[in-house]
Amino acid sequence: MEARHLRYAVALAEHGHFGRAAGELGIAQPPLSKQIADLEREVGARLFDRTRQGVFPTAAGEAFLVRARRALEEIAAATVDAGRAARGETGRLRLGFIASALLDPLPGVLSRFGRERPDVRLELHEMATSRSSLALVAGELDVAITLGSPRGAGVEHLVSVPIGRDHVIAVVNTAHPYAGQLSVSADQLRRQPLIVSAGEDEPSVVAALRTLLGTDSSVLGGAIVARDVHTIIGLAASGVGVGLGPSRMRAVPRPGVRFCEVTPRTPLPDLVLSFAARDHSPVLRAFLDVIRANCPDVGAALNDRIGSHT
């Protein structure tokens, strides 16, 4: 029994006439009569009474038609669902990210993706670069946004592209002597109590700060340790020291603080988007399209990386 047999039976029941049903179906009447007869033999019961007044479902036919209509509705729904899944309109996306990505560019990306793909289930996990790298390689994540490229075994099977560059800036209380300066120097920072991040991605950040302040500087050893950029800004607002963090901290509006550039300019590791090279899912493609739209500088690099892994 095929779906066409169900359509034939439903059309015949609706029109009550072989000729009219055949016309709607776009076939000749004799083939329709034969197909209905074949269906009745397969079912093992007469489904229609043929009379001079018309063709009418039997009791067996009425029971059959209830299920037939339901099956045809399910087939139509399955076709729609398959198309939506193929276009990346449904499904799941598992994203791991470092906290500072929520300053930029994630808010714009997630907002747009949610508007364009409201039926995709987003599973969001804040995690350090080391953890998200392992999860991505293990297939527990679809996408990861990390500080620097993922590290560890298996990362050679990932596609990675920078989506944001950053450098060290300072944040101080508005009453601090540095608050009126556009920039502060490394020498000035060495004379101040500092506030730095203590997240699991700290080694790469500390390495950048040691480049700025000098490897023999004791100022980092006595620094106040904060969990994330929000804590850095909050402690700086409290006047307990000079906060050092990524330039995307400027995206956090808070009264009572001022941001200053730091000289010499000290780059931090890039913000990097990664996914498995073998992953060609429509949902991932849809997410990458949003990345391209929201991060214009990323598009060419992303296309280059994808091309080299296909």
Automatic annotation (TrEMBL):
Q: Which CDD domains match?
A: PBP2_LTTR_aromatics_like
For this UniProt record, give its keywords in alphabetical order, as a comma-separated list.
DNA-binding, Transcription, Transcription regulation
Annotated HTH lysR-type domain residues: 1-58
Question: Organism's domain of life?
Answer: Bacteria
- From which source organism is this entry? Streptomyces crystallinus
Family from the record: Belongs to the LysR transcriptional regulatory family.
Q: Which InterPro entries match?
A: LysR_HTH_N, LysR_subst-bd, WH-like_DNA-bd_sf, WH_DNA-bd_sf
A single Pfam family it belongs to is LysR_substrate
Q: Which PROSITE patterns match?
A: HTH_LYSR
The UniProt entry, under SUPFAM superfamilies, shows:
Periplasmic binding protein-like II (SSF53850), Winged helix' DNA-binding domain (SSF46785)
What is the name of the protein in this document?
Answer: LysR family transcriptional regulator
